[in-house]
Here is the input.
Amino acid sequence: MLNTLKFAIDLQQGVPDPYYRQKVLSTYDDVLPRIGASVTYYGTAVVRQFQEMDVFCANTAHDISNSIDKLRSLQILSRHHIGIPRTTFVGDKADALPAIKRVGGAPVVIKLLEGTQGIGVLLAKSINAAASIIELLQSQKQNVLIQKFVAESKGKDIRALDS
Here is the structure.
């Protein structure tokens, strides 16, 4: 396991040199990236460097970026006919109430586009509460998703994708 933030990348014509803790790396056949959301830009730059060196990366920089972006992830799942809760993305507060109605009304889940492991996820039990939360978040230049509330499965849900 190598800490993503301890990498340095030297670039010159035809000679990519990745360093780890000030030492040039030996060659690698495969890389299994695990990039946290807090270091996405730096981490994906390191992964891209390995890709440019023709090292197999189980998760490409593009795939990592898509997985961290909640809206993009849902767009991809939707396109491939994978079941997701009804979701909407609006940029204007005037569109919030119609969007809430389109996902089935209250209660709704409001999600910041950035945030992981439940951070930035709010449950609004009424339409008025949802509209107020959305207006507040948008006034702070936060992009939000409005999503149909799916009742808790008492810890028995399994999330799996088959490729």
